Amino acid sequence: MNASKELWFEDVVVGTEMRSDAHTVSAEAIAQFCDLTQDHHPLHTDAAYAKSRGFPGVIAHGLFGLSLMEGLKTAMGLYETSSIASLGWDGVRFVRPVVAGDEVHVSFRFVDKRLSSKGGRGVVTEALQLVNQRGECVIEAQHAALVACRNDAAH
Length: 155
Known about the structure:
Number of helices: 4
Shape: elongated
Radius of gyration: 17 Å
Number of domains: 1
Order of helices and strands: EEHHHHEEEE
Strand content: 25-35%
């Protein structure tokens, strides 16, 4: 299910699954991430070197993929005004490389939700996978987000 509306804490149904649109990872985007993070390891910049290490070409940083997971989810418009904060990522695993030219999407499921001790907000936990064009999981993680309640009386 792709998102069609903004979600507030009350709208989140544990067990609901969603999927983002696909995105192609380019060598140029990987190079931009190198510049942004100052991580110019040859696995990310030199196709011949990456091939000498068993990869089909330049690969994205694991953190590039994790950031892309959040970006693809954000592009779905789920929490445009209801988002308060990211509370963190747990269980992050870089399962397979993301290679320049791969087309990836995010699949995720809401696995938990609870009201916060502060009124008008709650914690939503998502189990996410970044999946490539072959249907292979390349990154998996759990993310906790602080999301506003539509109605402060929900607390």
